[in-house]
């Protein structure tokens, strides 16, 4: 598939982009600046050691993509989605950011008006097929390509075909997806990351979770 | 330790009570009716096959207890705690219920005014040392004493000594506790159970989670 990373010059675009490139997908790294996008694409190729990775402006790469990852910071996501607007119509759009305020050894969920960042993206891009995934995994993990990611990911969304496609992408990079139901449930998944962050502080660790008891 | 189960005639009191009795703790099963309490205590003894289990009114068993489990249904917990009031002063009080509305193949978190049932218990019993635990584990699991519980539990609380005591109780019955920080975080843990319930419907399973990446 053709996978675009909006704001892909950060760690999520770099690491996830490299993993998807290595898995055989066509990856496009987007930025508002074409130069920064191309620099980042070169880094992704170097990290992946193989695959097809290009750089372009956010608008350009969205137009050509099957799947669009929102790889900007949580604070910037709503404005970024609004700016793309109708360009996202019909696209599978993946919301991965967690709106957390981290301070004093813990994190507090900054609940968006819609309940979650994923639902806010769906409101701001009504024609998009928004899927929520990868919240449990620290983005810095993705760039360590020689290491298996010891985590499941709970995937939520209202468009079942779009959700199934994203679950396939998870499997392609060795992360087991678990269908967590409608996009509404993304609020619980995003908020729970506040607990994982707190645990990280308490144990000086980088934790995630695996779901037990599945068939 | 002396462990009391308020409203202990239900599945949580039965199963957890039997596990703690078998682990060597003194267990008291409480009810508003002394007869029902004694009937339930007999069931717990039969299930545990050994140990010290007594029945009594909720007020009686609280007075003698070191640790008080709130084993009533979520809807009944606030009123139950208010009724006990000052009897809980200085006691370790464990909040295990999840305020969820389950319908149409999913669950929705019914957020209490305080953010979580555990925090509501703390507000209603200001002198209690409230700890939140065991949310991830379906209460019906506890009564299957021949089966290991394939789950961690995230434990939250503001009284560190009380939290450590409850984490010890978790270990006593073979459930790994993970320190999830302040009682405030119980809201995220309780709400996340809505996702686990949704997954149970989707996969016809009984899921929980284990935390990965701990030292």
Structural commentary:
2 copies of one chain form a homodimer. With about 220 residues, chain A is of the alpha/beta class. Helix content of chain A is about 40%, strand content about 25%. The first copy, chain A, contains 8 helices and 11 strands. The first copy, chain A, has helices at about 10-20, 35-50, 60-65, 75-85, 115-125, 140, 160-170, 185-205; strands at about 1-5, 25-30, 50-55, 65-70, 90-95, 100-105, 105-110, 130, 150-155, 175-180, 210. The model of chain A has no long low-confidence stretch (mean pLDDT about 95). The interface of A and B includes residues 106, 199, 203 and 206 of A.
The span between the termini of chain A is 29 Å
Count of distinct strands of chain A: 11
- Described by the principal axes of the CA atoms, the overall outline of chain A is globular
Report the structural category of chain A: alpha/beta
- Compressed to H and E, one letter per element, the order of chain A equals EHEHEHEHEEEHEHEHEHE
List the helices and strands and how they pair.
The structure is a homodimer of 215-residue chains.
Chain A: E1 2-6, H1 11-22, E2 26-31, H2 34-48, E3 52-57, H3 58-64, E4 67-70, H4 77-84, E5 92-95, E6 100-103, E7 106-109, H5 117-124, E8 129-132, H6 139-142, E9 152-157, H7 160-172, E10 176-179, H8 186-203, E11 208-212
Parallel strand pairs in A: 1-2, 1-4, 2-3, 4-5, 5-8, 9-10
Antiparallel strand pairs in A: 6-7, 8-9
Helix pairs in contact in A: 1-2, 4-5
